[in-house]
Amino acid sequence: MLEPIKENWRILLLVVVVIGATVALFAPGFGPEPAPGEDTSEAREGITNLQYGLDLAGGTRIRAPLSGYTATDVAFEGDGPATVAEAVAAELDNASARNVGAVPGERAVEVTEPSVTEDQFRRAMDASGYEYGDVREGVTQETRDETMNVIQGKINEAGLSGGSVQQIQSITGEYFILVEVPGEGRQDVVDLLEERGTVRIDIAYADGNRTAVDEGVLVQKNFDDIGTATQSNRGTGSYVPVTVRNSGESGQSPANTFQDAVVQRGFPDAYNTRSDRCEYVNGSLTGERNPCLLLVVNDEVVNSFGMDSGLADSMGDGSWAETGRFRLTTGEFSEAQTISLNLRAGALPADLDISGEGTSSSISASQGENFRTYSLVIGVLSVFAVAGMVFLRYREPRVALPMIVTALAEVYALLGFAALLGYPLELAVIAGFIAVVGTGVDDLVIIADQVMSEGDVSSRTVFDSRFRQAFWVIGAAAATTIIAMSPLMVLSLGDLSGFAIFTILGVLIGVLVTRPAYGDILRRLLTVR
Amino acid sequence: MVAIEVPEVDYTDYSNRQLAAVPLAFLVLALAIIGGWFVVTGAPANLGLEFTGGVELRIADDGDNVELVVTFQAAEDDPEGLANDLEDQASAAGLTTTAVDQVSPSFASDTARTALFGVALAFLGMSVLVFALFRTFVPSIAVVASAFSDLVIPIAAMNVLGIQMTLGTIAALLMIIGYSVDSDILLNDSVLRRTGAFYESVSRAMRTGVTMTLTSIAAMIVMAVVASVFGIGLLRDIGIILSVGLCADLMNTYLMNVSLLRWHKFEGVKR
Is A435 within 8 Å of B175 when comparing Cβ atoms? Predict the structure, then answer.
């Protein structure tokens, strides 16, 4: 029972791989992740689980760095990030604290206002008195992550399935944001990235039995700074720190106006203990009917807040407006992140420098679909060409037929891998497939010639020793191909890394699975007489 | 039916110098073309959009019949603005833009550097591995030299044929490294590691190696022809480059490498 399995394990392994590939290609559950509001079958393109890249599906790709400068190794001297950012911003004429960020974790200070030059930033850093190591182009890791979140949020919100955003690093160490959106035109994607919503804070208060609202007590331009979501260091909650501007061109500053409105609507009287909360449901106040702050994004109320009694008191005695700082507190960290996002109303924390150092490309959906069909035809015809040559050379179906079948199995297994990894197929990946068929058949020719050289193969021992000799050449050739391709896998050269990954995968599958199996098939056909 | 029989070559009729002269002449010619290109245009090859920056649009009329590729390279300071303008103009004229590529010049030069670095690293890695495999100087350098020539000849051919250097064609050049080394390793293995006389080993390796290379050339020619019918420039270029590279490989392997190996076997070892 076990003997035939042991004898033919290489062939069995090939069969298992082919079955595995079939499952990955066709079984539901291995398909692409559906976008929000889309079911699984909609996310699949065609009958297989394969995903197609922009070349073959149509869509837009934008790759650009974030504009800004970062001072590294900054000595914070125990000052908080807000203080440092303000000190630096004060030295810059064309930037406010909103465009300057200090990240203690990275010991970095950055400026994200595109009009600030490197020279100006250096001078501001020098003038601020904080020691720093160097100034480099680009922004901090935190800002990059934040920008990615914002972009991902925009893509999800627009319901664009399969859209993705990632960070890549170039050989010179510069970071790029790579945004890919299938099925959308270039202009639409750029607009989506640059689009900003409106955000404001309203006050809801009880007016007799009704709920009245003071609209726009704070609007977007009143904020000096909108912080990132922060985990509270006492207790469980999270918060977003914000600073309201306390300087007005004429008369009252926004901070004073806000303070007056809060006092007028009775916050200091309503919030005295921790148990006083804001209860705002479906447009009206309930329970104690305390006044509430409402966060309104694009004319929709997305959050409501009560007020800490200490804060309410400082507003009551008029001292709060001097600093203009408060925190929007929530239970969940993720909620704080959303609030921070909403407050920015879709503005990216740093601008994508698309025209300066970026690149964008876009292919229409119909073009992509054509390319998909065409590359299938090209692949099939290339395989026919190879098959024709092999038949002409050997004129023996026993040798040639298994050769072609094994080469096809190799491509099939690779397609299975692509479906399993969810790696989108691109023209460059198709080129990789063709390279794999080419080297694969080359190696099978080596095996066949080696095994059949020097007369008939009569015994298993003769076969095995010849097969092993052939395998040295194949292994050596495979190793060189892998070595030659591996740098491309990691360098940020766009399409080329897909090409390299699939060539290497193909070579590995070939050496480990399909070529040994071909040897076994050949042995059975030649030695069993 | 036509059968493919790999012809037996009687190498004893030719001296090493005669054998090596042809591939060396080709290599020198190719280097001269590339050098000349560098002197005249400032770049060793026709750099594509990805390496120079600029804007490229593919425009079709609404019947989808006529397709036009419009390219503006590197002339503009604001390629994104240009891309938008062009798109607007095309749609105003009732044309559909099927694809837009926009690359800023500074990004492009970064890409060019990275690509050059990648190819150099790939070549270096291949060379180191070949030396590690054979551990003798002459056969190893033969493989490396042949791979070098296999890369240089297609680049010169690209210049002459007007094919642009893009990321896709870089991929093709890297494929050549892989293919080229295959047949060279086979030849070295047959001559150095197997029993049998020199000429017998060479003709054995040739039988296999020439079949391999011809099979690949057939696939690449088919790919180039079909892809150019369909208008997929990338696959067409890869097909052409690999066909040229594989032909160069046939020549380099069975003329230059054989002569180097023969010298190594009969004269080099005696010293």
Answer: yes
Dihedral, CA of residue A360, residue B50, residue B98 and residue A43, to nearest 10: -60
Given CA atoms B265, B267, B268, B271 in this order, what sign does their dihedral have? Answer: positive
Tell me, yes or no, if A174 comes closer than 8 A to chain B by beta carbon: yes
Q: Which residue has the tokens 């992509």?
A: A368
What phi, psi does A199 have (nearest 5°)? -135, 145
Helix ranges (H only) for A395-426 are 397-421
Q: In the 8-state DSSP scheme, what is residue A217?
A: E
Is residue A340 within 8 Å of residue A229, measured between CB atoms? yes
Asked if the C-beta of A486 comes within 8 angstroms of chain B's C-beta atoms, the answer is: yes
Structure tokens at B148: 């070098």
CB interface of A with B, residues 273-292, below 8 Å: none
Torsion over CA: B205, B207, B209, B212 (sign) = negative
- Cα(A190)–Cα(A181) distance, integer angstroms: 11
Per-residue pLDDT of chain B (271 residues; tens, 9 = 90+): 455 666 677 787 888 888 888 899 999 999 999 999 889 888 888 887 777 777 777 676 655 555 666 676 655 556 566 666 767 776 676 666 667 777 777 777 778 888 888 889 889 999 999 999 888 888 899 999 999 999 999 999 999 988 888 888 888 888 888 888 888 998 998 888 877 788 888 888 888 899 888 888 988 898 899 988 888 878 888 889 999 999 999 999 999 998 988 888 887 655 4
Nearest to A493 among B99, B114, B130 (CB): B114
